[in-house]
Write a structure and sequence with these properties.
Layout lengths: L7 H31 L4 H6 L13 H8 L1 H33 L6 H13 L4 H10 L7 H4 L6 H12 L3 H9 L4 H12 L1 H17 L2 H6 L8 H9 L12 H5 L1 H32 L6
Helix pairs in contact: 3-15, 4-8, 4-11, 4-13, 8-11, 9-10, 11-15, 13-15
């Protein structure tokens, strides 16, 4: 088989495409690079030289120390980690059970229950009824107010349902013949076979928990229980620094740099986790989407 050389026009087109992709990549990466560089740049230099920044000017690392030394930020960071450790297992188990029910055939009252499940995807009770419900259940100002109301995402349950439907029925039928119950089928047969999908759902729920701030601003009144995004929001939008009650000149001199350092610290965990789950992303979402 002979391979013909590319024509000059094709080479020019390929070159143009690569250049466009390279420019778009730089546009996407530069904001992250700017935040990282700004977090190591002296605040006076940031104010004096706004705009394009490629390398740190007057390299300083004190902003990171000030962020970690502040108890309000460190408490909020560990609160977010605690929310992940508590919320993710609940999310995955509840989503797996919901997806399994939606994928089952011949289930009693399946159609009306599925309708009620889908109904919650488009309509909710509203902010005030939700607040009163959380208050009456004794969940107000606790971590459970941030975990239980969003324990199941209907969209994620549909993705899980699609993955479960791709599992051959013969495997489940063989397990039932051998005396297995539904829970054994779910956790011993289905769960190992849809790990790519669960990895994607883990990423969805994890990013959702880590970036969430609105629920905490409503249901949490104690500042020591707030997640990191609420503290970061107060720093960026409310024009607050991490000086706390002291308001020392040292903190004020690093105010701008502290903001960028707080952004880097808040974003770093998700950036570390994503590469390990990225290989499952396409496979996990698309599995079962095409029926052969």
């Amino acid at each position: 088989m002979k391979f013909t050389k590319k024509r000059k026009g094709d080479l020019l087109l390929d070159t143009a495409i690569w250049l466009i992709l390279l420019i778009l990549t730089l546009f996407c990466l530069y904001p992250m690079w700017y935040v990282l560089v700004a977090s190591f740049t002296d605040s006076t230099e940031l104010v004096r030289n706004p705009g394009f920044l490629l390398w740190p000017k007057k390299f300083v690392g004190a902003a990171y120390k000030m962020v970690f030394d502040n108890p309000l930020f460190t408490n909020s960071f560990f609160n977010s980690v605690k929310i992940l450790l508590v919320g993710l297992p609940i999310n995955i188990v509840m989503t797996l059970l919901c997806g399994y029910f939606m994928s089952c055939t011949g289930m009693m009252w399946k159609k009306p229950i599925n309708f009620l499940i889908m109904f919650t995807m488009f309509f909710n009770g509203g902010l005030i009824p939700g607040y009163l419900n959380i208050k009456s259940l004794g969940l107000y100002n606790t971590i459970w107010a941030l975990v239980l109301p969003g324990a199941v995402s209907v969209y994620n349950a549909i993705i899980c349902k699609t993955a479960i439907e791709a599992v051959p029925d013969s495997l489940k039928e063989s397990a039932y013949i051998d005396g297995a119950n539904d829970f054994q089928v779910i956790f011993k047969i289905i769960l190992p076979l849809i790990k790519p999908t669960l990895a994607v759902l883990l990423l969805y729920y994890g990013v959702g928990h880590w970036n969430s701030w609105f629920q905490a601003s409503i249901y949490i009144k104690d500042n020591t229980k707030l997640p990191v995004q609420n503290i970061l929001r107060s720093i960026l939008l409310a024009n607050q620094d991490l000086a706390g009650s002291g308001g020392s000149d040292t903190y004020n001199s690093y105010a701008e740099t502290i903001k960028y350092a707080a952004i880097v610290i808040s974003t770093f965990p998700i950036l570390c986790i994503y590469p390990f789950l990225q290989k499952y992303f396409t496979k996990g979402v698309m599995i079962g989407a095409v029926k052969g």
